[in-house]
């Protein structure tokens, strides 16, 4: 399956040394998170930024795309649906790395909400460790048991979440911390006080700091 995408090339016009892939949230599209590239180019001057559309039309009927159905979000079916989307996403990642002559160690995955779930799912299942994963207001789609069974690499992760999130409750961050700690996966977390389901300036600044470790 071919995913449409937006992209931004390195500002210095040199061959890229990093690939940053943005994964949007439910009902959004490829032109949403790509706007974050402008905030990250100083920290990653040699990065190529790509933002694909998710593979499915949004079931909500208001346009946009989804990685998986919201109806499976809090059911046992979520794992099956994420696995299906992950096969498509992994193929896309492989194609882009090959196109840009880069490797897993050069890859950073950044997701928001549903896209954050996909970023963590895909990044921890790559056969080789990637440079980093950033989860903005996301949720791990695994239990500790299913992740341990499928874990391929312990890539470091940045978790950010708002205490007033009305879409994915703040408890999603607590649960993610518990699972990552249990499996000894390195992570940092940032709590945005009174932030709803969003990415604020503080979250962007934390991401900029995180890049220095990637």
Features:
globular; single chain; Rossmann fold; 9 strands; 214 residues; 6 helices; two-stranded antiparallel sheet
Quick synopsis:
By secondary structure, the protein is an alpha/beta fold.
Describe the structure.
It is built from 6 helices and 9 strands, in the order ββαβββαβαβαβαβα. With 214 residues, the protein is of the alpha/beta class. Helix 2 packs across helix 3.
Walk me through the topology.
Elements: E1 5-8, E2 18-23, H1 37-40, E3 47-52, E4 56-57, E5 65-66, H2 77-99, E6 107-112, H3 114-123, E7 132-136, H4 144-150, E8 157-162, H5 171-182, E9 187-192, H6 201-211
Parallel strand pairs: 2-3, 2-6, 6-7, 7-8, 8-9
Antiparallel strand pairs: 1-3, 4-5
Helix pairs in contact: 2-3
Uncertain segments are: none
In sequence order, what are the helices and strands, one letter per element? EEHEEEHEHEHEHEH
The CATH superfamily label reads Alpha/Beta hydrolase fold, catalytic domain
Average pLDDT metric: 94
Radius of gyration: 16 Å
Helical fraction equals 25-40%
The CATH architecture name reads 3-Layer(aba) Sandwich
Number of helices: 6
Within the CATH hierarchy, at the fold level, what is the topology?
Rossmann fold
Straight-line N-to-C gap: 30 Å
In CATH, what is the class? Answer: Alpha Beta
Alpha-beta classification = alpha/beta
